[in-house]
Design brief:
Blueprint: H1 15-25, H2 28-34, E1 36-38, E2 61-63, H3 69-81, E3 90-93, H4 106-110, H5 115-130, E4 136-137, H6 161-176, E5 189-193, H7 212-219, H8 221-228, E6 233-236, E7 240-241, E8 244-245, H9 250-260, E9 266-268, H10 286-296, E10 301-302, H11 310-315, H12 321-337, H13 358-371, E11 373-377, E12 391-395, H14 403-406, H15 421-428, E13 433-437, H16 450-458, E14 462-468, H17 489-499, E15 503-508, E16 524-527, H18 535-543, E17 605-613, E18 618-625, E19 631-640, E20 652-661, E21 666-672, H19 675-679, E22 681-682, E23 688-689, E24 693-699, E25 702-708
Parallel strand pairs: 1-2, 1-10, 2-3, 3-4, 5-6, 6-9, 12-13, 12-14, 14-15, 15-16
Antiparallel strand pairs: 7-8, 11-16, 17-18, 18-21, 19-20, 19-24, 22-23, 24-25
Helix pairs in contact: 1-12, 5-6, 5-13, 6-8, 13-18, 15-18, 16-17
Bound molecules: alpha-D-glucopyranose.
Alpha-D-glucopyranose is lined by residues 63, 94, 138, 191, 270-271, 476.
């Protein structure tokens, strides 16, 4: 049995015992360092690592380092072998939808309604990023957006809290695996805690006026689900939550996260989140920033250094050492749980042997085709028949764009490794002549290439128009008042439609975009999002019918920006929305262009015979594939509670499942309802309240009312 110099070095001891032993050996300065996270650029000079930076080998964490495993290990060696206590650094990175193998942006993955796809993609991202020195990813993002002007809608899992929580939990399992102390796994970080998506007018970093009811009913549930899945860390958000900024919000960071959910990991601030308290009007005093954030429950400070005031605060009695110790304890607990003391160094492997492997690329393709959503298919324009289609015109900037497929937050994804539609299409249509023409770019007013595109359309039997937002229009700090496609793309589509050939429209975006003017100009429309390495092949799998599209929207697409915020689980008005005096718009159809849950298939489905047994609270419905193709249907179960002392949304999603059916096949589906999980509502204090009475269950257009007494 090896002797360990100190108990904290002994992996056989319980983590809490190792934390206690290490903590009591630490100086205050060493404790402060553990609560700081810095960047060190791309320092890759092994002879003077860290000399040009504020790098201190006793620092708690480094983020966004991409100088390779060898250099990351060299820095780590300074921490582990050349400091008094040898506490390893935890290395963080934004691995949001892939490291080198790009997966669909999270909003697209949510449209697959397949948590297994999310988990599998995160598993690949963990393996690939760990192989290049990452211990910790700042993902999954669990914000619930109602405003597509906000650029970060691309980064979460859509507008439904239940779905966001299910996908978030799947991401945690994917990143952390069965045992997060093992190599090849990374710690998850749930962000941005909490309510960031509620930013006013779609601005980023904005004030958020959130009632306690909305906080508990909409914004907290996805985080609770992912905490229960074992997430090791969270990131506090930039927004001011109704007067108390999230980074200094004791209610969310301690009363909810620790006291109620019993979360035992640590919370890192967002970039400069602590010192932004000045801009938010909270305090301009760095020591007060430090005291407020640390006391609220924000343990680690990203990038800024207000936490350097801890010794002064302790000396002046304005901060108790116990508060500091609790924060350090949480950080050490995760470092032990992550296995950093046992595996401080990552094996130096050739990234090419770990990343962009065939299985990962195949998974990216499967995720892409499952995430794309068929919005229109007039007269079964799709699928196309490669044996009979003699010529295809491929037009538009998306056809040759690799950047757009990479999406925002691309980690170290190299767009040059992403196949384009122009490169891939011929292999799916070997017998067809393909005439490519750019038509236009994304944003300029130039129409100089229209003629060439029109000519390509004129000599083809069918036209595929591939247009979109282009890279850089979504992500952090990318708010737009106009969410229509930019540039001259609509005009190009008009010209091509006028040629009179069947038009298949492919639209790539990171957010819901405006379709009212696009829709009439195409016979078929496939929303292809930004889907990574598998985007082009996954799209062609759908175009040829090799894959029957199964994507369903996880976020509402409005007809106009004037409708925002618009989302499915809104509350009823005082009058019937359809009535003349029902509060409708007088200049626009109130309904969304494409509602939450919308998506077409190459087959058709029929729901019938919905029955509810109140005795055992089971619901049953028959689902039948009434078409000629096998397909995967996502079954959405919605609950309405039309009479409640705390009024409820018109409907809310309480469960979803995916069913594969052969043509003509039918299945009797059963949902076991749970009184507290499904029928109870969340009150403004966050308590679940079951109120007996009348409920309505809706599934696939079938509706059944039932009463549950006491
Ligand atoms: C950014 C983002 C956050 C990210 C962090 C580190 O400002 O808000 O999502 O993880 O900084 O890059």
């Amino acid at each position: 049995m090896p002797e360990y110099e100190f108990p904290y070095r002994n992996p056989a001891l319980p983590i809490e015992q190792r934390v206690d032993d290490l903590l009591k050996r630490m100086t205050l300065e060493e404790k402060v360092d553990q609560l700081m996270q810095i960047t060190i650029g791309a320092d890759t000079n092994p002879n003077n690592l860290g000399s040009g930076h504020s790098f201190r080998p006793t620092i708690g964490s480094v983020l966004s380092y991409c100088g390779g495993t060898r250099n990351r290990n060299a820095f780590q060696r300074l921490a582990v072998e050349e400091t008094r206590l040898g506490i390893p650094i935890i290395w963080g990175f934004d691995v949001i939808h892939g490291w080198r193998t790009a997966f669909p942006i999270p909003l697209a993955q949510a449209c697959s309604w397949n948590p297994d796809i999310v988990e599998a993609g995160c598993r690949v991202a963990a393996r690939e990023s760990y192989a290049e020195g990452v211990d910790w990813t700042f993902s999954p993002m669990l914000d619930v957006p109602h405003d597509p002007r906000w650029g970060r809608v691309m980064e979460g899992y859509g507008e439904d809290p239940l779905a966001a929580g299910i996908f978030g939990a799947a991401a945690v399992r994917g990143y952390q695996g069965e045992d997060p102390s093992q190599p090849g796994t990374v710690a998850a970080c749930l962000k941005h805690f909490v309510g960031y998506a509620a930013s006013e007018a779609g601005h980023d970093y904005a004030y958020t006026d959130i009632s306690s009811r909305t906080l508990h009913e909409t914004y907290l549930p996805p985080f609770q689900a992912a905490v229960e899945a074992g997430a090791m860390t969270l990131m506090s958000s930039f927004n001011d939550i109704t007067g108390t900024p999230a980074v200094a919000n004791h209610y969310t960071l301690t009363e909810v996260l620790r006291d109620r959910w019993h979360f035992r990991g640590f919370v890192v601030s967002d970039w400069d989140g602590v010192v932004q308290l000045a801009h938010q009007g909270y305090t301009t005093n760095p020591a007060e920033m430090c005291r407020a954030a640390l006391s609220a429950g924000n343990d680690m400070e990203m990038n800024s250094s207000a936490y350097r005031n801890i010794p002064t605060l302790i000396e002046s009695g304005r901060l108790k050492i116990e508060v500091v110790d609790e924060a350090v304890r949480r950080v050490l607990r995760i470092k032990f749980a992550k296995g950093l003391f046992e595996h401080p160094y990552h094996e130096e492997v050739d990234p090419g042997t770990v990343s962009l492997q065939p299985k990962a690329l195949e998974l990216s393709r499967a995720a892409a085709r499952a995430s794309m959503v068929l919005l229109k298919n007039e007269k079964n324009t799709l699928p196309l028949n490669p044996d009979t289609l003699r010529s295809i015109a491929l037009i538009g900037p998306v056809a040759t764009d690799r950047e757009a497929s990479a999406g925002a937050w691309p980690a170290i994804i190299d767009p040059k490794t992403i196949p384009t539609l122009q490169e891939v299409l011929p292999s799916f249509f070997p017998k067809s002549e393909i005439h490519y023409a750019p038509g236009c770019d994304y944003t300029s007013d130039s129409t100089e290439h229209f003629a060439e595109a029109i000519a390509a359309a004129e000599k083809s039997d069918l036209v595929i128009v591939a247009i979109g937002e282009g890279a850089g229009r979504t992500g952090e700090n990318r708010s737009y008042t106009n969410i229509a496609l930019p540039g001259k793309q609509l005009e190009l589509l008009r010209k091509i439609a006028a040629v009179g050939r069947p038009v298949v429209l492919l639209v790539s975006s990171g957010r819901p975009i405006l379709y009212p003017e696009l829709e009439p100009l195409a016979n078929a429309i496939l929303h292809i999002w930004e889907c990574g390495h598998g985007a082009a092949a996954g799209c062609c799998d759908i175009l040829t019918g090799a894959y029957n599209p199964s994507g369903r929207l996880a976020i509402t697409f409005p007809r106009s920006v004037g409708q925002i915020p618009i989302y499915y689980n809104h509350h009823p008005r005082a009058r019937d929305e359809k009535a003349e005096w029902g509060g409708r718009y007088f200049d626009l159809d109130d309904s969304p262009m494409y509602p939450f849950g919308y998506g077409l298939s190459y087959t058709s489905y029929e729901y019938s015979d919905l029955e509810i047994s109140v005795e055992d609270l089971t619901a049953q419905v028959t689902l039948r594939n009434t078409g000629k193709r096998a397909g995967r249907e996502t079954v959405f179960w919605y609950l309405s509670d039309p009479e409640a002392k705390l009024t409820q949304p018109l409907r809310r999603l309480i469960a979803f499942e995916q069913v594969d059916l052969a043509p003509g096949e039918e299945r009797r589906l059963t949902l076991q309802l749970d009184r507290m999980h499904d029928l109870a509502y969340i009150d403004p204090t966050g308590k679940k309240v079951f109120e007996p009475g009348r409920f309505i269950l809706t599934v696939g257009g079938e509706k059944a009312e039932f009463v549950v007494a006491e």
